[in-house]
Every structure is written in C-alpha cells, then in structure tokens.
Amino acid sequence: MASNLSPAYAYTVVYVKDVTKSVKFYANAFGYDVRRLDNSRRWGELESGQTTLAFTPAKQHETDDLTGHVQVPRSTHERNQVEVCLDYADVDAAYKRAVENGAVGVSEPEEKEWGQKVGYVRDIDGIVVRMGSHVRS
C-alpha cells in the first residue's frame, strides 16, 4: 500500500539542442500531441498518458552550475544513459512513421525472446528511442 509520501511519477526531461524542433519532431515522428511550448522556447511538454515527456535545452545556465553539464555522446557508437521507450499496438507502423518523419533507423522491429516486438531509432539529437509492443506480466 502506498503511503502519502509515495510520489507519483510526474515526467521525464530530455535535454536537447533545440526545444521547438524536438517537440515538433516527437509530435510528428511518434504521434504525440503538444501540451505546452512556453514562450521562452526553453521548455516543452507532450501529452504522453499518465506522465509527461518534457524537453529543455542541453546548455542552460540555470542548472549547469547546480548539477553539471549534460554529457552528449561523441559518436553513434556511444549513447546517453537513458533511452526513451514508447509502447505501440502496431510497432511496424510506428517505426515506419518515425523514420518517415526524420528519425534515424537503428534496428527495424523484430520479435524478441521475451515476447515483445521492438525496434530502435535515434531522434534528431541522437537519443535512442525504443519502440515496442506492451508486454504483460
């Protein structure tokens, strides 16, 4: 049983080069509705169900001194410590849509031994996005 001190998972923040471009990219490539893009263009949010997928600039003076600089992979042989994972009923169609809208295909969807169909793309900032079917336990 959850206590009053148990938090609800609110959102994930993705650090990007250009918030406006990333919000538009994710809306088009992955089928999200834009919830908010603030006037400063330094914060954007997408409707993603019970949580929010948010974007903010990788370089910003507000947090760099506080928490450090965002580390960006130097090549396609490196990746961020976090990947964005999205569930789809039709992974093949979702993968095709993502690539047609500017995502870079990494691995086309295939059935995995654990019962999930999974494909991988990179977004416009090189972040790995896993596109998979929902796995019920």
UniProtKB/TrEMBL annotation:
Residues 8-134 form the VOC domain. It holds the Pfam family Glyoxalase. CDD domains: VOC_like (cd07264). Gene3D superfamilies: 2,3-Dihydroxybiphenyl 1,2-Dioxygenase, domain 1. This is VOC domain-containing protein. It comes from Penstemon smallii. The lineage of its organism: Eukaryota, Viridiplantae, Streptophyta, Embryophyta, Tracheophyta.
